[in-house]
Design brief:
Number of strands: 12
Largest sheet: 6 strands, antiparallel
Helix content: 40-55%
Number of helices: 11
Oligomer: single chain
Order of helices and strands: HEEEEEHEEEHHHHHHHEEEEHH
Distance between the termini: 45 Å
Shape: globular
Radius of gyration: 22 Å
Length: 387
């Protein structure tokens, strides 16, 4: 492959890495990155998902300190390629993530832990006997502030060996699903990362994670113009009358993200929601998981999200506090008949759940959607994720 090759870069770099191999691009070297977490990896020492190898660094996070817990090795087959065309705006694959942080986001969802990339630490040449050269000049340990009582607790450890099947499933997805998955995973990972310092932002990011896949689901069944005709017939008719099919399609592409957004969000939650946590608190501190009741709670969260974004109304303060413990597990919702803070008060019915409960639902939705994708289902994915 002596000449620069044209290829579609509107995809995650981590996803493209395998497709360079599949297309016969020769190996040009290798590179190794470190991923940091406050949860340690357990189980096997390696998980292979070509062209990647995930290695347990045996890092020991303690006392709220991050440690390198996974080393990601990439067998690099990236060819020479022409620059991204700049004759029009194209953001179909825009993620604003490095290759290693794309992987960190995916593993964060798989394992339900905080995980962020620090950057490259070793570079290898095309010589298979090359032991690699340390390369830390762009490496940075991520910033994170621990909390004595976390608002969204995460597991203290996670199994390394289960990551390979999920990653192989990701690498087998089509381009559009891969972009959607990484975008949704980033929202979830970032929500975990900021939960203790900015819980309101964490709530917004959790909702956005589900909205990403809800939007993708809507477009699988109908093109933007068809969706607008289904959901807003009068507007679609006016657009057709004003400028014909071309005008309708152009406007529909701009509006597709907001057409029936609430209904799409609820439908996605209904279709992909997980079951309740395995270990639950006393009954009085539980969220009712029967869909008719759970739907009302989810709708209330979505309403708080909209009020926060569009009217500047903060989330109820009790929903941004660390959960109490009742019995064997953390409370799933604020308890008591009512709560007050500052100049405001909320009745119990207006405090549907804690952030960690909603995080359980969101993570389950993302993983169940991932499982439902044809390529991922063919990989027979199995994990300890919510069923």
């Amino acid at each position: 492959m002596s000449n620069p090759e044209m290829f579609n870069v509107s995809a995650p770099w981590s996803w493209n890495a395998r497709h360079f191999v599949d297309r016969g691009c020769p190996r040009v070297g290798g590179v190794e990155f470190l991923l940091y977490s406050d949860s340690r990896a357990t189980g096997g020492l390696e998980a292979a998902c070509p062209p990647y190898v995930l290695t347990n660094c045996l890092g020991q996070p303690e006392n709220g300190r991050l440690a390198p817990v996974i080393a990601v090795y990439l067998d690099d087959h990236c060819p020479e390629f022409d620059l991204q065309p700049m004759d029009k705006t194209d953001t179909k694959g825009w993620l604003n993530l490095s290759l290693d942080d794309e992987i960190a986001c995916l593993i964060s969802v798989i394992a339900g832990v905080r995980l962020r990339a620090g950057g490259r630490v070793r570079r290898f040449t095309a010589d298979l006997a090359d032991r690699g050269s340390p390369e830390f000049y762009a490496h940075r340990v991520p910033d994170w502030t621990a909390a004595t009582r976390p608002i969204h607790p995460t597991p203290q450890h996670f199994p390394l060996e289960e990551l390979a099947d999920w990653m192989n499933g990701y690498l087998a997805l089509d381009r559009e699903d891969a972009v959607t998955l990484v975008r949704a995973a980033r929202q979830f990972r970032d929500a975990l990362w900021v939960a203790d310092t900015d819980p309101e932002l964490a709530w917004l990011l959790m909702v956005s994670a589900v909205e990403v896949i809800a939007g993708r689901e809507a477009l699988k069944d109908a093109a933007p113009a068809e969706l607008l005709q289904q959901e807003m017939p009068p507007l679609a008719a006016q657009l057709l009358e004003a400028g014909g099919d071309t005008h309708l399609e152009a406007v529909a592409k701009q509006l597709v993200g907001i057409v029936k957004a609430t209904a799409r969000f609820r439908s996605c939650m209904d279709r992909y929601r997980p079951g309740p946590p395995e270990i639950r608190p006393e009954e009085y501190a539980q969220v009712d998981w029967e869909w008719a009741r759970l739907k009302k709670s989810i709708d209330q969260v979505y309403r708080y999200r909209s009020e926060r974004l569009h009217a500047g109304v903060p989330f109820p303060q009790p929903m941004c506090y660390p959960p109490m413990t009742s019995g064997a597990a953390l409370d799933e919702r604020p308890t008591g008949l009512a709560a007050a803070a500052g100049n405001s008060s909320w009745m119990a019915k207006d405090l549907p759940m804690h952030l960690h409960t909603f995080g359980h639902i969101v993570r389950g939705c993302l993983l169940n959607w991932w499982r439902s994708l044809p390529a991922a289902a063919a990989e027979a994915l199995e994990s300890d994720a919510p069923a």
